[in-house]
Amino acid sequence: MEEFFSSFISENFIPHGHCYLWQPGLVWLHVLSDCIIAFSYYSIPLTLIYFVRKRQDIPFKNIFFLFGAFIISCGTTHVMEVVTLWHPYYWLAGAMKAVTALISFYTALLLIPLIPQALALPSPAQLEAANKALQTEIAERKLIEAELRQYKEGLEELVEQRTKELATVNQHLQQEIVQRQHSQEQMAELLKEVETTNRELNDFAYIVSHDLKAPLRGIGLLAEWLLTDYADKFDDDGKGLVNRLMSRVKKLQNLIDSILEYSRIGRFQGEKIEVDLNNVVNDVIELLKYNENIEIEVANNLPIVYCEKTKISQVFQNLLSNAIKFLDKPQGKITVACSELDDFWQFSISDNGPGIEEQHFTRIFQIFQKLSNTDDTESTGIGLSIVKKIVEIYGGETWVESEVGQGSTFYFKIKKELPSQSSVTQLLNLGLA
273-417, superfamily in CATH? Predict the structure, then answer.
């Protein structure tokens, strides 16, 4: 084996310079020419590497690297031409030529099946046409969005106008008891108008939801097809970007559903019954998904309240799921408790999570406000707004007490017995929902 490798640098042959009779002009002509050629060959792969690194979206990256290897090996053969002028390492020079031959032959074979794919790539003219079509579609979408904004502003103005009319009617009813019959007729007409407006608002919300969800579903399907049909064309970064796109689509769909749910609260009244909150909380806990290191405890017996079971379940589900989501301790603890006040039942959901800074106590109950910046597709920033709105429907209020690093306690209270609403209050609720 040692003799085999030593033969590569054997000097038993005559140096190539003897063929040129060691004429300085001829020798240096070949030396300079081969050096310049080798330098040029070596610089080309550097340019190719720079180009591929700058254009991460370039297809057929492997062929560029093969071109680089082929060019470098060609340059090396010229370097060997210079070496063999003085040192007869012809076996080493021949081996370099053999390596060059193998690389060039493999590159040529690999290049043949890539030709149809390269020809299938869109031309600059096709890309420009697609870009123009996309710009036209964007302009049309902007026009539609402007029209929707105008329609929304008109509806808001109409609702505000109806609200003022309802307030006027309510004032006249209080001042003119003797004209009850006449006032009730006016109120019935106004109620019909408000119900019509609410139906229009509801129809508008669902139409907008459908028009927004349709392209989102299309984007999601296209992303799935890309990931399935062109998986071998994407690198890890490309697959990650497509997965992020699908995640953002799912997040937008959840956001649209949450907005619809938020808009329905107060406008659709369900049946109020006596609800045992012990059963409600146990059902909610069974439905929630959480790790084994999290303990949820109901500290005391919960009361029976008169309310809509679905809405009160939403309150506990949103508060408990929020507590579970942000627990960051090795052993998480969540406690549900209740205390009795004069006219209210006061509930609390405590956790030993990261806590909340005092400056955010009010902000977190506002719609679309959330403290985390994660890409969680389930988080929409509406959950606590829904809790606040439902509790206020039952004449209560919500608030939070927290210490950073020690945990948070969310409180809400509802009246023990909801007063029977007069027809005037029902009308105002419909108008202001």
Answer: Histidine kinase-like ATPase, C-terminal domain (3.30.565.10)
